[in-house]
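[Solved] Which block belongs to which protein?

Original post:
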Amino acid sequence: MIHNQLKNGGRLVRIRVFKMGFIKEQQKRLAIRFLSWQYEKKNLPTPSRVELERHASEIVEDAHRIARERGRNVMSIIKEMIADLKP
């Protein structure tokens, strides 16, 4: 988290600015939950936590790349990618 100060009518106001890493980390955590849920829903053995984290990171990075190229919503892309999960 970065703290910035702005002058507001003669007084300093402190604001908090979150780095993009915070948002990606939250998306990764959500992707891990979606992945776990999909594995359970399809009666597949759930991979280790490390594997889930790796897979979620790849999904989030791919979703951001697709969103940049096509101008779509990152969370929608993540949900679609996980829904298409194949064993």
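(Second protein starts here: sequence line, then its structure tokens.)
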Amino acid sequence: MKRTDFRFANKGVLAFGAACLAAFLLLASCASVRGPSVKVNAFDTLDSDALVYMSVPVGVHSELTNSLVKTMVGSDLSDKYVKNVTDSIERLYIGIGSPSDRQRLQIACDGTVSTASKLALATSGYFSKKMQSVSSTGIYPVFTENRSGVQLCAPGSDIVLISPDITSQLKRYDVEANSQIVSSFASVENMNEVEWKDSEAYKFVGDAKTNNIRLYMNRPLSFITNLLGTSLSSSIFHLNYIEGEFEKLPTGKYSVDLNMEFSKDNLISKAAAFLKVALLMTDSKVVQNDERHLSVQGIQVSLSQMQKMLGIN
């Protein structure tokens, strides 16, 4: 397969999140939390209108995650320090963009904090701290990075939230936590979540059992164009969404499977024919599942290509 540029979002968007992971160690080591102390699914803290969702199981993809952290936080960091960062996190959930703000970024880290990680950034003058109230019971310590303005908060012992504006994520955390504490607790926010939690995006990206990286995109044409290294006609590839699954192979490469949903029935045969020609020199397969769903299975990419796709230089 020809060498292509795999970036699907603004340059460095996901790498920006990696730079925040080091700050997570400081936050987890010194934050005291007031508010509900319950287990909240980290993915539930992301807003339901993101253009892109991604989940990354850190342990299985440690090499990729370590390079992400080391590249953005500093190439002079020791491997031991980087390992302390990534060992603290089990999974990253990322939401990028919204219909009204394509630059919006929300990150939720799921995992416990090791003693080594707590000691890694025991003191720092890079953050300012304030208590933020999102409800009558939810008062949380929010740390703001002084230069970038990025906000971080650990509302629970096994979850860390990161965003330039963390208010929405904190509110969602608080609603989820209260709904578990008080069985009769009801709110407009919870009622509106029923449809979201039954959606394809939620079920696919929010699955914490998989060891594969998963990606869901609402506006995916540019991603497919970059992946194939050729221009695509929007009149043919009129897509509702794309699901991407990235499996790490024993060889160190990644196998990419894509599932596409088309908006019209008459487009899929033309799209299938186009993809078969574009992928002729690869081992991948193009399968038409039904009148509106097409899958591409087994596109192999290298670690460096994955890094480029995630915005790592």
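Accepted answer:
You had them paired correctly. Confirming on the second one: The CA atoms of residues 74 and 242 lie 33 Å apart.
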